[in-house]
Write a structure and sequence with these properties.
The protein is α/β, with parallel strands linked by helices. Helix content is 30%, strand content 31%. It folds into 2 domains: 2-134, Response regulator (Rossmann fold), CATH 3.40.50.2300; 138-247, OB fold (Dihydrolipoamide Acetyltransferase, E2P) (Beta Barrel). The strands form 5 sheets. It has a 5-stranded parallel beta sheet with strand order 2-1-3-6-7, with helices on both faces.
């Protein structure tokens, strides 16, 4: 069984390779990639694998960008920390799902599904269903004895700092989130939000202008009235995809 690993974190990628090598000698890793762009190129030029282990959040976007551009040629096993509601959406539609840290028994079960033919490659219709069901329309913020609903449409950006994640709204309110940016990214509409760096996901509606920085990076200036609680530098690896996102 040939496997493709799509994971942007080098340590997580190495861990998956080691986990497969030590416990599943029948599985051969045919490729290990970390970006949407490299994955698209690999799938278009290499023989189809038997299974794809895929993280949701990648270095230049998220896995839904892959699904919407090409037909994925093999069963997919998601390997990431993510919203529990979306987990159920994947499981009932023949796309398997493993939460990190990956449990060996769960991995064995998922690989057995692929080997038995129970797991099938996702269709375009399936992917549209998954994207629709995984998207979050609002966040419920818990503040002591209160719950504050925040609509996704009212969010200016998300950012992380000192191991905490935050929402900043168009009105300037800031709230602490329980979820990491990795967990958040897959549930956001990629036509509305872009992850400009590991620590910031920004809404297109708050972007006022873009300027060039040394080293091939970009600086995003927010619309007047939007508070800037974090750095808005687009990392060099994401510049091309960011500009393509703005021009679409």
């Amino acid at each position: 069984m040939k496997a493709l690993i799509v994971e942007d974190e080098p340590r997580a990628r190495s861990h998956m390779i080691k986990l497969l090598a030590e416990n599943f000698p029948e599985v051969e890793v045919a490729g290990a990639l970390g970006s949407v762009k490299d994955t698209l190129r690999w799938i278009e030029t290499q023989p189809a694998p038997d299974v794809i282990f895929m993280d949701v959040e990648l270095s230049d976007g998220n896995c839904f960008d892959i699904f919407t551009q090409i037909d994925v040629p093999a069963p997919v096993i998601m390997t990431t920390a993510y919203d529990q509601y979306a987990v159920q959406a994947f499981k009932v539609k023949a796309v398997d799902y493993l939460l990190k840290p990956i449990d060996l028994q769960e991995l064995q079960r998922a690989i057995a599904r692929v080997a038995s033919g129970e797991a099938v490659k996702p269709s375009s219709e399936l992917v549209r269903d998954l994207i629709r069901e995984a998207r979050k329309e609002k966040f419920l913020i818990r503040l002591n004895d209160r719950i504050v609903p925040v609509r996704t449409a009212d969010i200016a950006y998300f950012y992380s700092e000192d191991k905490n994640s935050y929402i900043v709204t168009l009105g300037g309110s800031s709230y602490v989130l329980d979820e990491s940016l990795d967990a958040l990214a897959g549930g956001l509409n990629p036509s509305e939000f872009f992850r400009i760096s590991r620590s910031c996901i920004i809404s297109e509606q708050v972007i006022d202008s873009i300027s060039k920085l040394m080293g091939g990076r970009l600086r995003v200036t927010l619309r007047p009235g939007i508070p800037a609680a974090t750095d808005f530098t687009v990392s060099r690896a994401r510049v091309e995809d960011f500009l393509n996102w703005l021009e679409r």
